[in-house]
Amino acid sequence: MDSSRAGTPSPQPSRANGNINLGPSANPNCPLVTQLWIPRGRGLSYKPSWLGEHGMLQWCARPTDFDFLKVIGKGSYGKVLLAKHKSDGMFYAVKVLQKKSILKKKEQSHIMAERSVLLKNVQHPFLVGLRYSFQTPEKLYFVLDYVNGGELFFHLQRERRFLEPRARFYAAEVASAIGYLHSLNVIYRDLKPENILLDCQGHVVLTDFGLCKEGVEPEETTSTFCGTPEYLAPEVLRKEPYDRAVDWWCLGAVLYEMLQGLPPFYSQDMSQMYENILYQPLQIPGGQTVAACDLLQGLLHKDQRQRLGSKSDFLEIKNHVFFSPINWDDLYHKRLTPPFNPNVAGPADLKHFDPEFTQEAVSKSIGCTPDTVAGSSGASSAFLGFSYAPEDEAILDY
């Protein structure tokens, strides 16, 4: 349910019979948003709140709870900022999206799906987690784990290619994350080096879940044409129904790029690249082990029914000889030493972020909490249920 802060509280709230008066919502489009007065010693303290899934009123974060320090990324609908929580000093990456842009392209369902998937990610070490989500009349805020080791794309551009042991480590951690999503019946659909981050120790963190498809059972398919051109599987290009094997194609494309420096069928001419993906045999330059070549051939099989991972999913990837040096239990528990240390000095160390972003001024409007709702009813109702706060921050039985 919606959590936009609606209006300002009355200076003298009523407390009939000693009970807390929640009062009506000031926003008719979001009737379940409340303005809650909580006893604090002898006085009352205002907290915006929302009714959680288990009948608990939960604290709702607001833009003014954070100091927004730097722009660290940009996307189609907004920016990602480094922010510091004022109360506990914790650093977060806050993804701020413009509602108007999302509604214009009718992408609200993808945003809500991203929120849903993010809430499941807290259970896996190689997936970014959602800590809070909230909204204002104009913006949506995802408060995410802050990861400052840089994008895999950034490091790959700088080093051109990785040796097999390093590529194997990253591919194994990514495969573990993808396998976990598949176990939840989620297809990722947008695996690429730009969506793979490194944390301060050098472990993989998969991010950006806007193209995820939920509720796809092992034998089921979906058909939406989406993804990033260089990494599209043949069945997606042919606009055929596809299943979770599409993610293993993408893993193959990313592994190939880590080892060779470019995606497997890359061309500057997009039409030619699509032709290559559909019809050109996979060409693997010399220098790779037999195990690496076999894995790439299996992952980049043009027939999704014959592709590695099409039958037993992650188990097939896990058991491939290329990954025989990997102890998967140690990998999952981060007991393996990453092959590269980003050497960040702390949260304020932004050397692995593009200066094009970090040198941009932070807009003051991002950190403001409007006192009134000034959006259309469509904008107010399109993102009902977006807000989230951890259950351990529930503030009152309701």
UniProtKB/TrEMBL annotation:
Record bears the keyword Nucleotide-binding: yes
Region of interest (Disordered), ranges: 1-26
Binding positions (ATP): K104
Keywords assigned by UniProt, alphabetized: ATP-binding, Kinase, Nucleotide-binding, Phosphoprotein, Serine/threonine-protein kinase, Transferase
Residue intervals of the AGC-kinase C-terminal domain: 324-398
Cellular compartments per GO CC: nucleoplasm
Native species: Vulpes vulpes
SMART domains for the chain: S_TK_X, S_TKc
CDD domains for the chain: STKc_SGK2
Molecular functions (GO terms): ATP binding; potassium channel regulator activity; protein serine/threonine kinase activity
Protein name, per record: Serine/threonine-protein kinase Sgk2 isoform X1
Keyword ATP-binding found: yes
PROSITE patterns: AGC_KINASE_CTER (PS51285), PROTEIN_KINASE_ATP (PS00107), PROTEIN_KINASE_DOM (PS50011), PROTEIN_KINASE_ST (PS00108)
